[in-house]
Inverse folding.
């Protein structure tokens, strides 16, 4: 429990025993700790350097514990001061990095990371450094990352980082896939499934992306993409796949897919009249609906299509079969 203050397990045990005894000589403390006397004496000397123990002035050969409230309080204050200095150094370095990256050289916008340990390290850094959102595309061939990635994901989710993940359908058959999905959905992560995903991809805060490289070499490799037009393209790719994928939900019987939401008959009538050139007011009059009702339905259609303008809605309506070309 006191490791954060620089004490190892043996030092902590010695201090606890000394606090319990009040005072003790080396042989007596060694018996309590079931340690050799030289090891016990070394532990006491370390405690002395930390200000946690002292030799008794009245009884030579005996050691006394410093009051925990005073001694540990001093160590805690020192640790807080060191952390404050580290935070200040980190902030200064971050500012220096931002200043240097204001006009980055082209070759600095993309890093090539080679080797499974290096790829795994960058993958973990992306998650642990995320502040707002992590987006990911997952194929049936898992990334060459093992070990602590699930812990990093859980830590990030607990910090309030939002996760949006699209999985390729065959990836659901991978070992432990359902268990990991259940855990992710239990953390309120948003997970969707698609028949095919174009590539593995991880994007953190729309500021950094990791894309594995396809190579015949035995060593895994990946690209780390910094803020650039290429990063915007990768973000757009994710959003495109996300819109077309089906949400996964955690129900009483386990993980299940939701049926795709679509326009109802009235939505299609509204859309048909709009595509014919009628105004919202004319559509409302033609269908005996309120103007706000028409506008709400148009907004819902735009959300279903994943578009932001009515012109885009018209194109998507034809592409999705919501309207037919005459």
């Amino acid at each position: 429990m006191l490791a954060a203050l620089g004490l190892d397990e043996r030092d902590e045990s010695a201090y606890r025993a000394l606090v319990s005894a009040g005072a003790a000589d080396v042989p007596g403390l060694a018996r309590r700790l079931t340690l050799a006397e030289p090891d016990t004496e070394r532990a006491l000397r370390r405690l002395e350097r930390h200000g946690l123990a002292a030799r008794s002035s009245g009884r030579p050969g005996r050691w006394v514990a410093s009051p925990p409230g005073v001694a540990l309080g001093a160590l805690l204050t020192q640790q807080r001061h060191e952390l404050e200095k580290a935070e200040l150094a980190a902030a200064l370095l971050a500012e220096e990095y931002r200043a240097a990256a204001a006009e980055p050289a082209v070759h600095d916008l993309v890093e090539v990371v080679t080797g499974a340990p290096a790829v795994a390290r960058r993958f973990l850094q992306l998650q642990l450094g995320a502040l707002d959102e992590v987006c990911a595309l997952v194929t049936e061939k898992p990334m060459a990352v093992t070990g602590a990635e699930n812990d990093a994901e859980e830590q990030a989710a607990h910090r309030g980082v939002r996760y949006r993940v699209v999985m390729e359908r065959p990836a659901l058959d991978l070992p432990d896939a359902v268990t990991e999905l259940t855990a992710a959905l239990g953390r309120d992560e948003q997970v969707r499934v698609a028949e095919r995903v174009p590539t593995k991809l991880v994007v953190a805060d729309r500021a950094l992306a990791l894309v594995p490289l396809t190579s015949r070499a035995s060593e895994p490799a990946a690209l780390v993409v910094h803020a650039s037009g290429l990063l915007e393209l990768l973000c757009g790719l994710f959003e495109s796949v996300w819109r077309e994928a089906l949400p996964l939900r955690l129900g009483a019987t386990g993980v299940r897919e939701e049926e795709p939401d679509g326009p109802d008959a009235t939505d299609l009538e509204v859309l048909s009249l709009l595509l014919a050139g009628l105004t919202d007011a004319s559509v409302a009059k033609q269908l005996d609906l309120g103007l706000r009702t028409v506008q709400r339905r148009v907004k819902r259609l735009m959300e279903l299509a994943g578009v932001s303008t009515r012109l885009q809605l018209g194109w998507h309506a034809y592409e999705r079969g919501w309207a037919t070309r005459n």
In short: The chain has three domains: 1-103, 106-257, 265-319. The two ends are 75 Å apart (CA to CA). The chain has a mean pLDDT of 78. Residues 246 and 260 are 6 Å apart (CA to CA).
